[in-house]
Amino acid sequence: MPGKTSLSRTITIIVLAAAVLLLTLGQRGNLAALQDVLSTVMTPLQQGLAELIPKVSDAREIAPQALLDRNATLVAENTLLRTHKVQLEDAAAERDMLAELLDFGRKHHEHTYLAAKVIGQDPTAFLQFIILNQGTTAGVQRGMPVVTQSGLLGIINEATPRASKVLLVNSSEMAVNVRLQPSRATGVLFGQYSNDMSLRFISLDVNLQAGDIAVTSCLGGTLPAGIPVGSVASVRKRAYDVFQEAEVIPEVDFHSIEIALIITDFLPTDLSPLLGTQEPLTQ
Fold first, then answer.
1. CA–CA separation, 194 vs 230, rounded Å?
2. How deeply is 268 buried, as exposed, middle or buried, from its count of CB atoms within 10 A (0-12, 13-18, 19+)?
3. Is the peptide bond before 182 cis (omega within 30 degrees of 0)?
4. 230, 214 in Cβ contact below 8 A?
5. Residue extents of the structural domains in the chain
6. Spacing of C-alpha 42 from chain mean position
7. Rounded distance between C-alpha atoms, residue 133 and residue 160, angstroms
8. Could you tell me the end-to-end alpha-carbon distance of the chain, in angstroms, rounded to an integer?
9. Residue 145's CB: how many other CB atoms inside 10 A?
10. Hey, how many other C-beta atoms are within 10 angstroms of the C-beta on 142?
11. 238: phi > 0 → left, psi -120 to 50 → alpha, else beta; which?
């Protein structure tokens, strides 16, 4: 504004003039005159500066409560945004898991699948079972295989209308007939109280090596063939044994399972009547 610009120029001139006078009087040692000049110059200068400063209401009129309320609002908004971020990340992770399971289903399209979420698990240190949120009302029955995108998870051991219990392949109660790749030899995987499984009944003449993959075989009629179960970690082969054995690491990480697929179109076949000792046929 013109008025404030003129006032600024006037103050500048006064300050410069005062500086010159102060320098001159200081050199002459006239202290009394110096005090008079200071009084004469500073009084209008203070008034001019006061006019340049915008009029601000008393600071006490800015209520602290308003600042506290604004801060609380910002904190709430930040918390809400963080919550939404976590929800989006969780949804993205679940989407990725479903996409992997869908890909598994496409590769093994010969079966019908039912997706289920993990809602419970074995509370002991050695994870032996999990609980899914699908039960008999969805068609789940005892003996149905359960898989993930990595391979065989286990079989349905018990089922209620809205939930089912999956006995994991590493459970001490499990025994799975498998076929080894690439040798095509057959054996049996036994669960144990650890994450590893024990592979037994492998003939000594089989070239079994670490890294070989064990998949389900159709032997026993309990599981569909071709589902990955685990990979050989170490082999124990001694000349005086009848069979060689191996430690097998499961393909599935049991502690990270959130969603699984139940194979609903496969039911185990009871072969016991056909495997029992029978009298020879006579003609």
1. 14
2. middle
3. yes
4. yes
5. 2-52, 69-107, 113-268
6. 70
7. 10
8. 126
9. 24
10. 14
11. beta
Q: Bridge partners of 161?
A: none
Query: pLDDT class for 59, splitting at 50, 70, 90?
Result: very low
Cα radius of gyration (the chain): 42
Neighbours of 30 (CB within 10 A): 13
pLDDT for the residue numbered 47: 61
Q: What angle do CA 151, 268, 221 make, to 5 degrees?
A: 80
CATH class, range 113-268: mainly beta
Q: Is 10 helix (H, G, I), strand (E, B) or coil?
A: helix
pTM of structure:
0.65
Q: Report residue 25 CA to chain centroid gap.
A: 79
CA distance 258 to 117: 6
Q: Residue written as tokens 């009944």? A: 201
186-191 vs 152-159, strand pairing mode: unpaired
State the residue for tokens 């990725």.
Answer: 96
| Model pLDDT for residues 219-268, shown as the tens digit of each residue | 888 899 999 999 999 999 888 888 999 999 999 988 888 889 999 998 78
pLDDT in tens, 33-43: 555 655 665 56
Q: pLDDT at position 116, please?
A: 93
**C-alpha torsion angle, residues 33, 35, 38, 44 (rounded to 10):** -100
